[in-house]
Design a protein that fits this description.
two-stranded antiparallel ribbon; zinc; metal-binding; single chain; alpha+beta; Alpha-Beta Plaits; extended
Length: 409
């Protein structure tokens, strides 16, 4: 048989008393019924980035206040340029621009952001504004909410009744023009992509038409203010080569399809303005977007008469005599809020507290037909009469020369 080794009881490993107490305490703490304190809620803070200030595009020392070079015979102090016998036209000039606007880098807030209705900086569009955040004009691109009067452009310059002969300058207020003409483009294979890339920086483009063989493009913007900004920003600039662009206003497109498209756009713009002015339920009924509106309208416009449906001019009329109760809202209290003041020997006036104010009402006398005016008309005239102080009559002159209208002699 194999020998079995026996371990004495004293040799059995037992944890010390300190560990036993510790484990007992741990057991007690784990089985406790105490409620844990509520955890703190995490609050998300929305940190809004502050708008950056506009960056000066050029060094102020670069801008020198020098009189314009003489290009004509007469100096116009209003427009600060020469006129008459111009030797060089700004539109046909081959001189490259002094700077170019970088919208991503140069845009920012200026003093004009605190004044609603401010105009855009012309020098910012040309890339040569030295003021930066101290400028009194906006340094950003025009948006759809930037609306100006028809007689001025987005830079605050006065527009004229007709275009110039060369289709340059500010433009006219007689027609909304969103298309600019770009000439002297270097002819290449990807000319359409190049034109679209450079002119898309100044706003949303609706349509681009490029004549590849002639190096000419017509760019139509969605917003007229963006077209005005792009005309100044791309004047005398270059695309991919060293060409100097000739940017002017485009003439009206004689294409019948273009005229129909422009007329459709004006109609849609007018319809959108009408939608904003009319109630939403009325617009939904007209456009047929609410299927239950027709049934509801038929019931409301019947006014309890079977088979009757009031026309629009009756159902939507407004006034104190309107058939629709909604149309009488605001007109029913006019007669109640009118105060009739009785002056003199009026008949039977009495005060009545109508809840908010005391009103004086006159009981109409019985109808009488024995005079030219009715009794009700006489009561109205009597209630509205005003006492007028009579002028004192001058004393009659006396003397021997009364017949000669003078008694000084």
């Amino acid at each position: 048989m194999a020998d079995v080794e026996t371990i004495p009881e004293a040799a059995v490993l037992t944890p010390p008393e300190d560990m036993q107490n510790t484990s007992h305490d741990l057991a007690l703490t784990t089985t406790s019924n105490e409620v844990a304190p509520p955890t703190e809620k995490k609050v998300k803070k929305i940190i809004r980035r502050k708008k950056r200030p506009a960056r000066p595009q050029v060094d102020p020392a670069y801008i020198k206040s020098e009189p314009p070079p003489q290009t004509g015979t007469t100096f116009n102090i209003w427009y600060n340029k020469w006129s008459g016998g111009d030797r060089e036209d700004s539109a046909t000039s081959q001189t490259a621009a002094k700077g170019r606007c970088n919208v991503v880098r140069d845009s920012g807030y200026t003093r004009a952001d605190g004044h609603p209705g401010s105009y855009f900086c012309l020098f910012f569009a040309r890339g040569i504004c030295p003021k930066g955040q101290d400028c009194d004009y906006l340094h950003r691109l025009p948006g759809i909410h930037d609306i100006f009067q028809p007689n001025v452009d987005c830079f605050g310059r006065d527009r004229h009744s007709d275009y110039r002969d060369d289709m340059g300058g500010v433009g006219t207020f007689s027609r909304q023009n969103r298309t600019i003409y770009v000439g002297r483009i270097h002819v290449q294979d990807d000319i359409e992509e190049v034109v679209a890339r450079h002119f898309a920086e100044w706003g949303q483009i609706e349509r681009i038409r490029v004549l590849n063989t002639r190096g000419v493009a017509f760019i139509t913007y969605t917003n007229e203010a963006n077209a005005q900004f792009a005309k100044e920003a791309m004047a005398h600039q270059s695309l991919e080569h060293d060409e100097v662009l000739n940017v002017r206003w485009a003439t009206e497109d004689p294409n019948p399809m273009a005229k129909k498209r422009e007329a459709r756009r004006i109609e849609e713009q007018a319809a959108e303005a009408i939608r904003r002015a009319l109630p939403a339920e009325f617009v939904a009924e007209i456009e047929g977007k609410d299927p239950e509106a027709r049934k509801r309208r038929k019931i409301e416009s019947s006014y309890g008469l079977e088979g009757y449906e009031a026309p629009d001019e009756v159902h939507f009329a407004r006034g104190k005599n309107a058939v629709n109760p909604r149309g009488r809202e605001g007109f029913e209290l006019e007669d109640q809020q009118r105060l009739v003041l009785e002056v003199g020997d009026g008949g039977g006036g009495y005060y009545e507290n109508a809840g908010q104010q005391a009103q004086l009402r006159i009981e109409p006398p019985p109808e009488r037909d024995d005079g030219i005016l009715s009794s009700r008309t006489l009561a109205t005239l009597q209630a509205s009469r005003v006492a007028v102080a009579s002028r004192p009559q001058p004393a009659a002159p006396a003397g021997p020369l009364v017949a000669y209208d003078s008694d000084s002699d």
